[in-house]
């Protein structure tokens, strides 16, 4: 959506800023989903302690990076 220019010289965010924002939003959503799915899958196969935390963290980073990448591509297309 276009942002109106106000009396204080406000301008629209640049395309790069939009892509960064898309990546950050996607990364946050992916991390949350990765925490849920990673915890469930690691507990299901019997991981405990340090192994559980490593598995959940790895799943969170993977899903966050993947979803963030696709969200940034989508925001880049909209520029």
From TrEMBL:
GO biological process terms held by the UniProt record: protein import into mitochondrial matrix; protein insertion into mitochondrial inner membrane
Transmembrane segments: 23-43
Keywords from the named record: Membrane, Transmembrane, Transmembrane helix
UniProt-annotated location(s): Membrane
UniProt-listed InterPro entries: Romo1/Mgr2 (IPR018450)
Gene Ontology terms: cellular component: TIM23 mitochondrial import inner membrane translocase complex
The keyword NADP appears for this protein: no
PANTHER family from the UniProt entry: REACTIVE OXYGEN SPECIES MODULATOR 1
Protein family per UniProt: Belongs to the MGR2 family.
Role this protein plays: Has antibacterial activity against a variety of bacteria including S.aureus, P.aeruginosa and M.tuberculosis. Acts by inducing bacterial membrane breakage. Induces production of reactive oxygen species (ROS) which are necessary for cell proliferation. May play a role in inducing oxidative DNA damage and replicative senescence. May play a role in the coordination of mitochondrial morphology and cell proliferation.
Protein name per Swiss-Prot or TrEMBL: Reactive oxygen species modulator 1
Native organism: Eleginops maclovinus (Patagonian blennie)
């Amino acid at each position: 959506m276009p942002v109106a220019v106000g009396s204080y010289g406000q301008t629209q965010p640049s395309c790069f800023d939009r892509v960064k924002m898309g990546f950050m939003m996607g990364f946050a959503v992916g991390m949350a989903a990765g925490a849920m799915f990673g915890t469930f899958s690691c507990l299901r196969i019997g991981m405990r302690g340090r192994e559980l935390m490593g598995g959940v963290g790895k799943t969170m980073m993977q899903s966050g990076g993947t979803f963030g990448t696709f969200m940034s591509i989508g925001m880049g297309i909209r520029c």
